[in-house]
Specification:
5-stranded antiparallel sheet; elongated; Jelly Rolls; 2 domains
């Protein structure tokens, strides 16, 4: 369905991942506690113990392999680099989870005064598509709707609109998309961008 606050929701997993990383993972696993919360919860001490044990184990292994030459301890820069890598993996993973898989298309259409056009996406029930469309030179009336298998639905309508963006979620298998009409006295150019889970994009009118 049409939802204009999706970009804000898409950022929430990244924020949560960063908070968990800084307040729990880094203090408990690596004794890195930039906020002080980990020490207050006893997690930083746990991380220090784990780090010390890991360092001792590494020195023991190195001594056995290299004739009692102790292994070098990780430097603060190395630990900071490790934290940066962990954070990057969390952020990239969260962002990837929010990006719909599938194809990407850009379509540009010029409409004369009074002229209408329709563009449909072939989608399965529950499939999601990120979209944005903009009008250059004026405004249009639009109807975002779907049909297929004897079913019909209207997601959103608007009058004298210069553009819109959001996420389209198919209510059923079929064709889902937009009808636009230019009610201005001059030609307008409409640009539609889509990205997500759909099999085909087609201009019906």
């Amino acid at each position: 369905m049409y939802n204009t606050d999706i970009p804000t929701r898409a950022e929430l997993p990244i924020v949560a991942a960063a908070a968990i990383l800084v307040t729990i993972v880094l203090p408990a696993e690596y004794a890195i506690d930039p906020t002080g919360i980990g020490r207050a919860l006893g997690l930083a001490e746990m991380g220090e113990i784990k780090t010390q044990l890991a360092d001792e184990a590494e020195r023991d292994r190195a001594a056995g392999q290299q004739g009692e030459i102790p292994a070098a301890l990780p430097t603060p820069d190395q630990r900071s680099s490790l934290a940066a890598r962990i954070f990057a993996e969390l952020v990239i993973g969260s962002a990837a989870a929010q990006t719909p898989a599938g194809r990407t298309d850009v379509m540009t259409i010029t409409l004369k005064p009074g002229e209408g056009t329709e563009v449909k996406l072939v989608m399965n029930q529950g499939a999601r598509v990120n979209f944005s469309w903009t009008v250059t030179g004026g405004v249009v009336n639009f109807d975002l709707h779907g049909d297929g298998g004897g079913q019909q639905t209207s997601y959103e309508k608007g009058r004298s609109v210069p553009g819109a963006e959001g996420v389209l979620e198919a209510a059923f298998d079929g064709n889902h998309g937009w009808f636009w009409r230019n009610r201005d006295r001059a030609d307008v150019t409409l640009t539609l961008r889509t990205n997500g889970d759909y099999a085909e994009i087609k201009r019906a009118l």
